[in-house]
Design a protein that fits this description.
Strand order of the largest sheet: 11-14-17-10-18
Number of domains: 2
Bound molecules: adenosine-5'-triphosphate, magnesium ion
Radius of gyration: 28 Å
Strand content: 15-25%
Number of strands: 18
CATH superfamily of the largest domain: P-loop containing nucleotide triphosphate hydrolases
Distance between the termini: 75 Å
Oligomer: single chain
Shape: elongated
Largest sheet: 5 strands, parallel
Helix content: 25-40%
Amino acid sequence: MLCSITSACLKGIEGYIVNVEVDIAAGMPSLTLVGLPDQEVKEAKDRVLAAIRNSGFDSPIKKITINLVPAEIKKSGTHFDLPIALGILGASGQLSDTAIANLKKYIFIGSLGLTGKVHGCAGVLPMLIALKRKGKEKAIISQDNLEEAKYAAMAYFSAQNLKQVVDLLEEKIPFEQELKDNSENLSIQEVYTEDFSEVKGQTLAKRALEIAAAGGHNVLMMGPPGTGKSMLAKRFATILPPLEKEEMLEILQIYSVCGLLNKRKGNFQRPFRDPHHTISNIALIGGGQNPRPGEVSLAHNGVLFLDEFAEFSRTSLEVLREPLETFKVTIARAKETLTFPAKFTLIAAMNPCPCGYHGHNVKVCNCTPVQISRYKAKISGPLLDRIDLTVNLLPVNFSDWEKKAQGPTSKEIREKVIAARKIQKERFKNSTTTANAFMSVAQIKEFCALPKDGAQVLELAMKKLGLSARSLDKILKTARTIADLEGSKDIKKEHLMEVFQYRPLDRKGVRDI
Ligand SMILES: Nc1ncnc2c1ncn2[C@@H]1O[C@H](COP(=O)(O)OP(=O)(O)OP(=O)(O)O)[C@@H](O)[C@H]1O
Ligand SMILES: [Mg+2]
């Protein structure tokens, strides 16, 4: 007898429908799983038969064939256990006609323990969103994945064990009809214990971070030890604009695929990822045998803070070039190509040399010119070209340090940032662009018209500093954000001039700063 059950799987962070077909025929007792299952899926064989037995059903001693359709896409995950178990029960005649008819009403996603307990699994949210788009309405999932069903606004039954699912199919217990769109409740909880006003002096760096938050621009902070680079970066989260609902759903899907969603419960701020400099390329960019999103994707719609930037391996830094340019990561395999979103704001902090005091106003740098060159050469030209704002921090002077009032608070800056983002939201209402930093070439042309006197400034800068076309685009995007912060409709010459303050590398080059 044949039984077909609806489930789902993931390709990158996109879900798609999978039909689990189970056929039971007379013959040598065996269980064959086809349809490109990976090792994780294959292990279902042993778990499922034990779960069936321990739930009080018979495990058929016949030839069982399970096919996962579409058969040409590689499947991974443990969530096929529940549909496979139900398929075996259906195909072996252990379910009534009512239950068989009800099987078609639901989709099943869940991993099974040997006792028959239904366990949660990763990636349920994107799977449910994809299924909902295809018109599927009711899901049977584990209690562990309840939150995800709510975010997908999918009616669900939270199954404790296999026996309970069979009781539901046999109509012995009712379906919990809870069609609540939890994504409406994605209230953003902004509770910060740190504040920008705690950072003394460093006016230029604070302004650069304000511009970065307003337009999503990348920032590099360079300076001697103890000048407040890490301190400023950590407080950057406190001035970011609140998340839009669509941005939040994108983030939740990525965290769901990584199995991190429950950890984010009740914490709906923009992601702030600060991986250590010893991180591997794969952990940073994503990939692996079963490709998973890396830190750049976990920072999607948020911030990737790379402290001690020059201490990261050269290859780790170079792999950042693709997401910084295209805002996504593409992982190509022989049989498939996966794409993970990676639209983040990069905040990088580094010392100017190995001893940290190159360019210090008092302390003497002990490094040789070769050491300094080698240290800075880790940050390649193409990578620097992708950074919009660079600030050279100097030690705080005593008068700044002893001052009580230390400039605007996080709340005050954030209000300005939110106002600037509102202008951008209106500007990009017909596109997927979320902030000035992510403008396409066509959008730069449309929204970043140069003032008459500004064209001369840019032309001169291009000739004298040898700016690349990308640098020019970045300058225009940043000037657009400064104009937005001022509430100015047009980019003015002074906005352009301010951008040049944050581009010391264009003037000096990284080795001389
Ligand atoms: N501008 C500042 N205002 C107030 N406190 C500061 C400032 N700069 C540094 N400090 C104090 O020094 C400590 C270290 O600062 P921070 O970690 O930000 O330095 P850093 O620039 O990142 O140094 P390193 O290059 O060694 O990483 C802070 O925790 C804070 O107590
Ligand atoms: Mg630091």
